[in-house]
Specification:
The complex is a heterodimer of chains A (about 260) and B (about 240).
Chain A (H helix, E strand, L loop, with lengths): L2 H11 L5 H18 L14 H34 L3 H7 L4 H38 L7 H14 L1 H13 L3 H12 L2 H4 L12 H13 L10 H22 L2 H5 L1
Helix pairs in contact in A: 1-5, 2-3, 2-5, 3-5, 3-7, 3-8, 3-10, 5-6, 5-11, 6-10, 7-8, 7-11
Chain B lengths: L1 H8 L5 H28 L5 H33 L3 H7 L4 H35 L6 H28 L3 H17 L24 H32 L1
Classes of the chains: A mainly alpha (about 260), B mainly alpha (about 240).
Chain lengths: ~260, ~240
């Protein structure tokens, strides 16, 4: 079985999981306050950001700080728990498939879920921007290229974090602990982005990136910019180590039992 | 007593260590904050407990709610997996007893968590503010109030996790509800009554009349949630 077939099988498994309703609900709830408080976007002269950019970036800040990491955790729970029910994972491990390949296919499915979340979010942004443009007689809609670039950056910056959460869910058998450690690790990211060592903490990447985009768009705001060195090498290292550990540990507890 | 059976069930789920460690983590928030920025807080206006809670309660309440959401998901996950709930139904125990047994246990665990946090706050006041023992009644009132406001959120999460067979759905609903709560305006009364938003309220920042309103509102919410649970069991039995 090649890798693409494995991913297709994984996608089939989560087809009836209703996870998309949760992702959609999160995206809708996120944009409602932005639509209700749309007039505040015109009062941002002190920061020097245009109303349409402010509308866009505030929504994405709300997503990147908590809901996006949390929905990746929900994704890891979904992927690992569907297999644990009725010991389905044992049947998968009995197949002539390399366990590391199986593990990576599951991780790829997790990334697909994260990409779907970003995609739904961008779609909801265009719907709410169109609504606000009609309400305020001001064009809030940004060019698709800009929105796509920001969305892609958000997704890419979340890959190390997703690898970390995936490692947690593979290594810790009790779902309670992997959820608790994951959720608890999101909360301090607000504090970590203000320190110099933010690049060592993968859970803060998406929020840091969107914050630095905010200060790039706002002329009068001075916050730290995302510098590629040492960020990218550290991020690649963290991703690699997390995936290596999860590939090594995948299915080990089940095989021993 | 039925509750001892529930205690036995959660023995190997790790619920107790999870709540304990979450309490310790949330308790570490004010301690670390004071250790790093004690000058800023020592020069602040108001009583020590008030300063501490204003600076840290947002983060601590968020950790508490997350622990409650994850914990309550686990309470019913052990019943839903391997269809243990069906076996429970064949016992001479009513389903509502199962629910309220779990609810009492979850509430006890969250009380333990809050007690650890109160201990950490007491340590902070003792160590940095050096005001003697006068703060203790204020501290007890603050955390007692926090405990009361936590109840609707606990019962509602438990109800959600009973209704959803799959743990990721109940976890997802809980997280989305908490996310909604962080975006509601905290100063207006009715939006802040949302069960996941009300634990963010601080005792020392609220005037006495408002506190009474919150306590009444929490009691009403609890009664509504208990009735909803009884109704839910009846509907599910009829549709099954």
């Amino acid at each position: 079985m090649n890798f693409l077939t494995l991913i297709r099988i994984e996608r089939k498994k989560i087809k009836h999981s209703k996870i998309f309703f949760i992702l959609l609900a999160a995206a809708i709830i996120l944009w409602i306050p932005s639509i209700l408080n749309v007039h505040l976007n015109f009062e941002m002269q002190a920061e020097g950001i245009s109303p349409e950019h402010n509308f866009f970036i505030q929504g994405f800040l709300g997503l990147s700080w908590f809901m996006f990491p949390a929905s990746i955790i929900i994704g890891t729970v979904l992927i690992s728990q569907t297999e644990r029910a009725d010991n389905a994972i044992l049947k998968m491990l009995a197949l002539p498939v390399h366990t590391a390949g199986l593990c990576l296919a599951k991780f790829a499915t997790l990334l697909i879920l994260a990409a779907a979340q970003v995609f739904i979010m961008t779609g909801m942004y265009y719907a709410s921007a169109a609504l606000c443009s009609a309400m305020q007689h001001y064009n809030f809609i940004l060019p698709p290229l800009f929105a796509a670039k920001e969305a892609a950056l958000l997704f890419l910056s979340a890959i190390p974090m997703a690898a970390f959460f995936w490692m947690l869910s593979v290594c810790i058998k009790s779902p309670l602990f992997s959820i608790c450690i994951g959720l608890a690790s999101i909360v301090p990211s607000v504090l970590v982005i203000n320190t110099d060592a933010w690049f060592a903490y993968p859970m803060s990447y998406p929020f840091f990136l969107i914050t630095s985009e905010y200060s790039r768009l706002a002329a009068n705001l001075e916050t730290a910019q995302a510098e590629l060195f040492p960020w990218i090498p550290v991020a690649v290292m963290i991703t690699f180590i997390c995936l290596l550990i999860s590939c090594m540990r995948f299915g080990q507890a089940e095989r021993r039992a | 007593m039925y509750i001892f059976l529930e205690c036995k069930k959660i023995k190997h789920t790790g619920l107790l260590p999870a709540f304990l460690s979450c309490g310790m983590l949330a308790g570490a928030v004010p301690i670390v904050n004071m250790a790093v920025r004690s000058k800023l807080y020592l020069s602040g206006q108001g009583s020590p407990v008030q300063i501490l809670l204003q600076a840290n309660w947002q983060l601590m309440a968020m950790l508490n709610i997350l622990a409650v959401i994850a914990g309550t998901c686990m309470f019913y996950q052990i019943e839903h997996s391997e269809r243990a709930l069906l076996k429970m139904r064949s016992l001479p125990v009513s389903e509502s007893t199962v629910f309220f047994g779990k609810a009492v246990l979850a509430i006890l665990l969250s009380a333990v968590m809050l007690a650890i946090e109160a201990g950490a706050a007491a340590f902070c006041v003792y160590y940095w503010f050096e005001t003697g023992n006068v703060f203790l009644s204020e501290l007890c009132q603050s955390f007692g109030y926090a405990f009361l406001l936590m109840l609707p959120c606990t019962v509602l999460s438990l109800l959600i996790s009973e209704a959803c067979t799959n743990i990721w759905i109940s976890l997802g609903i809980g997280i989305v509800c908490m996310f909604t709560a962080t975006m509601l305006p905290a100063d207006s009364f009715f939006p802040s009554l949302f069960p996941y938003a009300v634990p963010f309220q601080i005792f020392t920042d609220t005037e006495a009349a408002r506190i009474i309103h919150y306590i009444y509102a929490t009691a009403v919410e609890l009664v509504i949630l208990c009735l909803a649970e009884l109704l839910f069991i009846r509907i599910r039995r009829q549709s099954a």
